[in-house]
Every structure is written in C-alpha cells, then in structure tokens.
C-alpha cells in the first residue's frame, strides 16, 4: 500500500514516473479509468479550498470514479471521533482517501489504519500535491528539472517551502529558501532535504536575504504570508515579510529567462506584485490547471500499487 503524505514518500525515480504519467494523462484525459464502476474516493477538508476541491472532484470523475467531498466540520471527525476509527470505516467503503488537515500525525494515522491509499491534500508540514503540479509546470516549460535553481522567498516555515525543499531535492534541483529570522524551514525538513539532495545532485540553501536568494535563479516562487491557521498573526506577519515581496525589482535579480510560480490564492501587493503575477514570466494559471493532471496521475499510480484497481483501460 502506497501513500503520499510528504513529497519524499516518492523516490526520485517514482517522482519522475508520476510526472511522466501526468504528461500522458494531460494529453489523453480519459484514457485511464482505474476508478470505473464507479468506485469512490473520499476527499475530506478541515480547511478551506478552491483548487484542491475542484481538481480532485473533476480528476476522480475523469478516472471513472465518484468523489465524495466532505467538510470535516460536518463529520464526526470534527467532533473528535478517533482518526483510526474513521480510517477503518472509510477504508471499508472507499478506494482512496484525500485529506486536507492540520497535523501530519493525523495523516499518518489515517494511512496506518485505512487500508487504502491516503493523499495529503495540504497539512501544516507539506503540500505534496501542489508540488507535483508545480514540477509538472516546470517540466513542460524547461523540458527537465534536474539542475534548475528554484528560489522561494517568504514564509519558510510553511507547507509550500517544505514541499519545495523535499520535492526539489528529490528532483535534483538546487532549492533556496529566503525567509526572515524566525520563519526558516523546520530543521528536520532541511535535514531530510539535504540527505536527499546528496543522492540526487541537488542542493539546499536556507538564507535570509531575498536578493541573494533569487540571484540567477531559474524559478522564483512565493506563497501567502498568512497560511491557514495563522490569521491571528496577520499584522506582525505583514510587517515582517514586507521585504520579501516578489516585485519586478526583486525578480530582476533572477535569470533573464526566469519564470514565476505561486500556488494560489495570491494576495497582490503583499507577497507578490500584480505586475509580476499577471506578467509574462508568470506560469500560475498553467500551474493551477496542472493540479488536475498531476493528481490524476498520482491517483492512477497509487491505485495501481495498492492492488485496488479494476482492469484499467489503456494500461
Ligand atoms: N493551491 C491550493 O491548494 O489551493 P486551494 O487552497 O484553493 O485548494
Ligand atoms: N501555505 C498556504 C497554502 C495554501 C494553498 C496555506 O497553508 O494556507
């Protein structure tokens, strides 16, 4: 049984295979039907979502299946039912579980007890589905990933920064995170990314100077300064992160052909300037669309390895 709880649940070869599959699935959206029946995938949300909700819903239907979209506030999970009990019940009825939640430990319990593949649709620690979509976007743009220099500036202690570190090291990329003091990525994530990078030819750097972070980079990335769950820190964060705003002046320090990513939702005038996200270097709309294709590929890949597929067409 395979799961995607963190980006480094996929080896370098496996990440590359999922991305190749994503290109195939994008070219032929209905060729693979591993959920024909239809079989059901539960998609649970403890937090808000637009892209994740829609892309899983559409993607599961494209794969022949039925998406059961649940806001956990309306389930017994929201009233404190133990996660292992919920996992056992869901696993008897659905073919996979996708969950947007707070703690990584909840996802680990769900994976341990459900008996079906579990996908992290965003936690405090990582956002590996977004990472796959981002790398698919870069693969389409640059033709390959290994050796690219990716510069992320802003909140280094959030899920996206962690996913870029882990997923970038896995792909053999050079990942730089530029964040203010107190907002560096978690030490354990940096250590894991360094260990992976040592095997792939990639590298990891944690910096504080935004200009140094983006200098010569092929890709400049940012994310909201106020991730879900941190709303009460808004005023302090707006002040602390202001020097890390991705403006055209900052992007001018990157490679002349650099592109810009943002997982969305974006807050123009804060973490990114309107003329950057809406400008010619921005790939954000391809990036958002690629959530659909990358996640379909991921589900195909996980279902094939869980022994849970009906005879899929086109395989
Ligand atoms: N990027 C992302 O995960 O978007 P949503 O929060 O809208 O799902
Ligand atoms: N870091 C953001 C990502 C949103 C898709 C958050 O956790 O809110």
UniProtKB/TrEMBL annotation:
It is found in: Cytoplasm. Its main location: cytoplasm. Keywords: Cytoplasm, Transferase. Residues 2-140 form the Aspartate/ornithine carbamoyltransferase carbamoyl-P binding domain. Carbamoyl phosphate binds at residues 49-52, 76, 100, 127-130, 263-264, 291. SUPFAM superfamilies: Aspartate/ornithine carbamoyltransferase. This is Ornithine carbamoyltransferase. Residues 147-302 form the Aspartate/ornithine carbamoyltransferase Asp/Orn-binding domain. Pfam families: OTCace, OTCace_N. L-ornithine binds at residues 159, 223, 227-228. Signal peptide: none annotated. It comes from the Bacteria. Belongs to the aspartate/ornithine carbamoyltransferase superfamily. OTCase family. It catalyses: carbamoyl phosphate + L-ornithine = L-citrulline + phosphate + H(+). Pathway: Amino-acid biosynthesis; L-arginine biosynthesis; L-arginine from L-ornithine and carbamoyl phosphate: step 1/3. InterPro entries: Asp/Orn_carbamoyltranf_P-bd, Asp/Orn_carbamoylTrfase, Asp/Orn_carbamoylTrfase_sf, Asp_carbamoyltransf_Asp/Orn-bd, Orn/put_carbamltrans, OTCase_ArgI. Its EC number is 2.1.3.3. It comes from Aeromicrobium halocynthiae.
């Amino acid at each position: 049984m395979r799961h995607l709880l963190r980006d480094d649940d996929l080896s370098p070869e496996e990440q590359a295979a999922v991305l190749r599959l994503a290109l195939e699935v994008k070219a032929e959206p209905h060729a693979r039907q591993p959920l024909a029946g239809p079989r059901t995938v539960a998609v649970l949300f403890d937090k808000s979502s637009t892209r994740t909700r829609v892309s899983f819903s559409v993607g599961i239907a494209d794969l022949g299946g039925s998406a059961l979209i649940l806001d956990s506030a309306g389930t017994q999970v929201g009233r404190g039912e133990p996660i292992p009990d919920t996992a056992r019940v869901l696993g008897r009825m659905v073919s996979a579980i996708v969950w947007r939640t707070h703690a990584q430990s909840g996802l680990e319990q769900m994976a341990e007890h459900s008996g079906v593949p579990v996908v992290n649709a965003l936690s405090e620690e990582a956002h590996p589905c977004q990472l796959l979509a981002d790398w698919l976007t870069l693969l389409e743009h640059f033709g390959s990933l290994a050796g690219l220099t990716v510069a992320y500036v802003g909140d280094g202690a959030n899920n996206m920064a962690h996913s870029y570190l882990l997923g970038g090291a896995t792909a053999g990329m050079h990942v730089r995170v530029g964040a203010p003091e107190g907002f560096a990525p978690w030490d354990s994530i940096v250590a894991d990314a360094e260990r992976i990078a040592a095997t792939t030819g990639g590298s990891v750097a944690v910096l504080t100077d935004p200009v140094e972070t983006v200098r010569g980079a092929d890709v400049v990335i940012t994310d909201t300064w106020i991730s879900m769950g941190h709303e009460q820190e808004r005023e302090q964060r707006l002040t602390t992160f202001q020097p890390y705003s991705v403006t055209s002046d900052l992007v001018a320090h990157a490679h002349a052909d650099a592109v810009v990513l943002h997982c969305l939702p974006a807050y123009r005038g804060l973490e990114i300037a309107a003329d950057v996200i809406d400008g010619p270097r921005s790939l954000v709309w391809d990036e958002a669309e690629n959530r659909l294709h990358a996640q379909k590929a991921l589900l195909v890949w996980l279902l094939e390895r869980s022994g849970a597929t009906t005879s899929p067409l086109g395989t």
